[in-house]
Each structure stands twice: as structure tokens, then as C-alpha cells.
Design brief:
The chain is α+β, with helices and mostly antiparallel strands. The chain is built from six helices and twelve strands. Helix 2 packs across helix 5. The structure holds biotin.
């Protein structure tokens, strides 16, 4: 992809009419959020390098030059209604892409993708008025030294570390955009059941002992899976069930 130039990429309809690739941005989510009213539905903003990539809960997100994918898409709620399950649908899209490359991954609620207990992808959803910015980071060609230098080793992994293959970043982006379109269209047109069924087939947390770090309390207990609205449920040692629509999970 050339810098800051719409490419020839054409999806089945959702993305690609406005696809911008920058050599460097502070954060593709920040870029989209600051232009949220002017960017069209389906706009894709990608950066070869982010200088201030952000994750959930104000964490930093490592984005290495030409070795990771960092991009955001703009979704207009009037054109494609979004819900609490949109982030899960995006994680499903990443999972399906990895499966195409024979990488066995699991899904960690609410929207992380994990390979061999290491994080390979994260998703950050932000909104303003009736628009959503869906930011995806995927570790593609990073080496262990890239993670070591910023204290993320062995917590993180990349596609290359899992397969030994060096990937063409633009191919990975276009394939992921296609998967994302399929997942989000399935959610909008068929409802949440296909996405939730897929999630349940690759759920990292169900049956595991977890702690959910939430605003007011942080209960621990057995994860009993996800419900019809994508909520996570946990049964504590007293047999009480807790439901979460958001939060950060740590495994025991
Ligand atoms: C997380 O796991 O906490 C979410 C990470 C999201 C990272 C992506 S990279 C593209 C977009 N721009 C950002 O600053 N963050 C998201």
C-alpha cells in the first residue's frame, strides 16, 4: 500500500471505498475519533506505525513498524447497527483469519484473541453520537525481541512466531477486512446467534477459574460462559452467579 492513498481494494461492499494507509500516526483510533462526523461509514484507516497506540483500560498498545497491523474502521449505526456483540464479532473475524493460516487460537472475553496463552490481537471500540470506531491490532511479523524490548514477552505472540512464515501485511489486512465484513454482516442480518455459537466453540474462559476486574468489585470464581447478549457469567464460591457486560478478566 502506498502512504495515505486509497487503494484498489474493493470488498463486497462495506469497506474499501475510503481506505487510507499512513506511514505513522499517533493512533488510528484517535485519528478516526477526531474526524468521526466527517469520515464515511466503512472508512478504513491503517498505520504502518503508531506512536501512541492505545488499548483497553488506557493501556499502551505496541505497534511495530511494518510488522504489525494497526487499523480502525468507522461504522455508522444507521447503516450497520452495532451492539455489545460487535467487538466479539470482530474478534471472531480475527480468529477466522488465523484459522485460515492454520493458527489455533482461542477467544478471550470480551474481545481478545489468544494463541498458546499469548495475546496475538486486541480490539478497542470507541463511539461518538451514532458512530463507532473499531480499532484492531494484530501482531503479524513481530519477533520475540520486539516484545522483549517492551516487557511483553512471553505474554504476546505473532503470526510469524507461531508459523515461521513472514506475511505480506497488505494481504493480511485485506483478508481480515473480508472476514470482518462477513462477521459484522452476519451479526446485522442474522442476529447474534452465529457469532455467539462460534465464540462458544473457541471460548478460552469457560470452565476456568477467573477474576473479573470491574469498576466496583472484582469477584473470582468459575466462568460459566457467555449469555445471549454476550455477557460473561461467573459463579463464585457461594454459588452466586455474576454477570458482566464489560470488564477485564485474569485467569487464575
Ligand atoms: C486491547 O487489547 O487492549 C486493545 C488494543 C487495540 C489496538 C488497536 S491498534 C489500532 C487501533 N488504534 C489504537 O490506538 N488502538 C487500536
Amino acid at each position: 500500500m502506498k502512504n495515505n492513498e486509497a487503494t484498489q481494494y474493493r470488498s463486497k461492499g462495506l469497506w474499501g471505498s475510503d481506505l487510507f494507509d499512513y506511514s505513522s500516526l499517533p493512533s488510528t483510533n484517535d485519528y478516526c475519533m477526531s474526524r468521526i462526523t466527517t469520515l464515511r461509514h466503512g472508512t478504513v484507516v491503517s498505520a504502518q506505525h503508531q506512536t501512541a497506540g492505545r488499548g483497553r483500560f488506557s493501556r499502551n498498545w505496541l505497534s511495530c513498524e511494518n510488522t504489525s497491523l494497526s487499523f480502525s474502521v468507522v461504522i455508522d449505526n444507521k447503516k450497520m447497527p452495532y451492539s455489545g456483540i460487535t467487538g466479539m464479532a470482530a474478534a471472531v473475524a480475527v480468529h477466522r483469519l488465523l484459522l485460515r493460516e492454520s493458527i489455533d487460537a482461542l477467544l478471550k472475553w470480551p474481545n481478545d484473541v489468544i494463541v498458546n496463552n499469548r495475546k496475538i490481537s486486541g480490539i478497542l471500540l470507541e463511539g461518538a453520537s451514532d458512530r463507532l470506531v473499531l480499532g484492531i491490532g494484530l501482531n503479524v511479523n513481530m519477533e520475540s525481541a520486539d516484545f522483549q524490548s517492551c516487557g511483553l514477552w512471553p505474554a504476546a505472540t505473532s503470526m510469524k512466531l507461531e508459523t515461521g512464515i513472514s506475511y505480506e501485511l497488505s494481504d493480511v489486512l485485506y483478508n481480515l477486512l473480508d472476514e470482518l465484513e462477513q462477521s459484522l454482516c452476519s451479526l446485522a442480518e442474522d442476529g447474534s446467534s452465529l457469532i455467539l455459537d462460534y465464540w462458544r466453540s473457541y471460548d478460552l474462559l469457560k470452565g476456568r477459574h477467573i477474576t473479573v476486574n470491574h469498576t466496583n468489585n472484582s469477584p473470582s470464581g468459575l466462568c460459566t460462559g457467555i449469555g445471549a447478549s454476550g455477557e460473561l457469567s461467573l459463579m463464585d464460591k457461594n454459588g452466586a452467579t455474576h454477570f458482566f457486560l464489560s470488564g477485564d478478566v485474569t485467569l487464575a
